[in-house]
Every structure is written in C-alpha cells, then in structure tokens.
Design a protein that fits this description.
Strand content: 15-25%
CATH class of the largest domain: Alpha Beta
Helix content: 25-40%
Largest sheet: 7 strands, mixed
Number of helices: 8
Radius of gyration: 17 Å
CATH architecture of the largest domain: 2-Layer Sandwich
Number of strands: 14
Bound molecules: L-MYO-inositol-1-phosphate
Distance between the termini: 28 Å
CATH topology of the largest domain: Fructose-1,6-Bisphosphatase, Chain A, domain 1
CATH superfamily of the largest domain: Fructose-1,6-Bisphosphatase, subunit A, domain 1
C-alpha cells in the first residue's frame, strides 16, 4: 500500500501544482463570487475550476477512487466516506481571502483510505508554500522536513482559531467566548482565514494549536496527516478522538497542550457532514 500511496501522491501533486496557476492569476483578488450557506460562505468560478481539474485528472487515472469535494457537495453531491481510497478536496481554502487578495488561501487535498488520512497536500501558490505529508514519511514545507513546536502549556502557546463562515448565533457566541478566554490565558491568538493553513502553521511550529467548530472534512483532511506527520496531534475539541466528519477539530503540538486546551474551550456541536 505504501508504494501505491507514493504513486497516488505524485499524480496528485502535479495536478495540484497545475491547478495552483488558476489561483495565481487572481493573486490580487477575485471580485466575482456567489454566496452559499450564508452571506459569508462564498464561492468563485476558480473554486469550481480547481475542483474540476483535480477530480477530472485523478479520476482519469484512478476511476475506482472516490471524491468528496467542497463545491460538488455544495452542488448536491453526497458527502459519503467509505473504506475506499477517497480524495477530499477543498479547491480554495480561504475563499474570502482569495476574493479580497489577502494572500492566505490554498488548495487542500487529502487522501483518506480506510477512513484514515494517509497523504495530504496544502498548497498556497501565491507565496509558494507547499506543505505535504505521507503516512510514516514525515511532513515537509517545500523540500524541508518540518516539526511541531515544543510548547506544552496554553500559557506559552500561540493559538489560532477562526470565526468561520456561518452566522449561526450560538456558534458565533461560542467563538466570542473562546476568544475572550484565550486572550487572557494564551500567549497570543491568530486567525489566518484558512483552516488548512492554520493546521499547516501548527505542523510548521509557527503556531502551537488551532481549533474550530463548523469546519468540514475538506478543510481538515490534508491538515490532519500533515500535523500528525510533523509530530503533532489532531483530536476532537472536547478531548476525544478526531472524527473527520464531525465538523470539529483541535490540533496541537502535543497531547498535553491539546488536552489542556480542550478542557478550557466552550464547546459547540454542529450538524455532521
Ligand atoms: C473556510 C476556511 C475558514 C474557516 C471556515 C471554512 P472555505 O473554508 O478557510 O478559515 O473558518 O470554517 O472552512 O470556505 O474558504 O473553503
């Protein structure tokens, strides 16, 4: 299986790099967009074209593989995860950034087999940052191996989180309560506007933890394996095991930090993917 994963990964990587050119063309912003589940959940033609490029390219070579793509699901496709090799795609993670020309958006592509992330690619073509990982082979930024930080306590941690793309009142209240709590308890807080890039920052050791309620499988499939291969952990924000379809994520540089943070967080349970 390892050899097969290597082969799938190389094919996917070439497609991701090609699709990245579509994003580069709009590095200064993409002013045409539509809204989806809320007035801040947005999609552009580029999101759709990137997803189409990846699905067409991969399914031409691997017709038996399955796909869960953000824009296909928005258009009515089923979000169904089986034991089969499944490519989980966020064509532009950080669409709001992409629209504004804020250079923190990326393609996030995860390969899940037997319901476990075994390979991940997070590519921000605008600043040429390519985060990759394959099961058992470490995590990389471009050609350099990366590792999570040594931070083990919330009081010493730089923690990222997001306000998200839903206007649900209970969820927004939870975001504000957690922000208020972390401003007093953590060393600092950050939000880069892309779930995948927040996870990549934990893998890089640039931040120490990231959590969010309301993300989808496509936001976290690649980040999960990249964080774990960099030596970090990915759990449910209440402290239990990570569930890719639960729409809840907490990743951190260590189990100690993850569990301390989980105990402090106000929880929110969105409807599952
Ligand atoms: C969004 C993320 C954002 C996060 C949202 C959503 P999209 O993805 O990038 O950081 O807060 O939950 O997942 O819509 O830009 O692909």
């Amino acid at each position: 299986m390892t050899d097969a994963i290597d082969e799938y990964f190389e094919v996917a990587l070439e497609l991701v790099k090609t699709a990245g050119n579509l994003i580069i063309e709009f590095r200064n912003g993409c002013k045409e967009f539509e809204s989806k589940s809320s007035d801040i959940d947005l999609v552009t033609e580029i999101d759709k074209k990137v997803e189409e490029t990846l699905i067409k390219g991969l399914s031409a070579i691997y017709p038996e593989h399955k796909f869960i793509g953000e824009e296909s699901v928005a258009d009515g496709a089923k979000c169904e995860l089986t034991e089969e090799p499944t490519w989980i795609i966020d064509p532009v993670d950080g669409t709001l950034n992409f629209i504004h020309g804020y250079p923190s958006s990326c393609i996030s592509l995860g390969l899940v087999i037997n319901k476990e992330s075994v390979a991940g690619i997070i590519y921000n073509p605008i600043v040429n940052q390519l985060f990759t990982a394959k099961k058992g082979k470490g995590a990389f930024l471009n050609d350099r191996q990366i590792h999570v930080s040594q931070v083990k306590e919330v009081r010493n941690a730089l923690i990222s989180f997001e306000a998200g793309t839903s206007r649900d009142e209970e969820r927004q209240r939870t975001v504000l309560e957690n922000f208020k709590m972390l401003v007093t308890k953590a060393q600092g807080v950050r939000a880069v506007g892309s779930a995948a890039l927040n996870m990549a920052m934990v893998a890089l050791g640039g931040s120490d933890a990231y959590f969010e309620f309301g993300i989808h499988a496509w936001d976290v499939a690649a980040g999960d394996i990249i964080v774990r291969e960099a030596g970090g952990v990915c759990i449910d924000p209440a402290g239990g095991p990570f569930d890719i379809l639960s729409r809840r994520v907490l990743c951190a540089s260590s189990e100690e930090l993850a569990q301390e943070l989980a105990k402090m967080l106000h929880q929110y349970y969105p409807e599952r993917d």
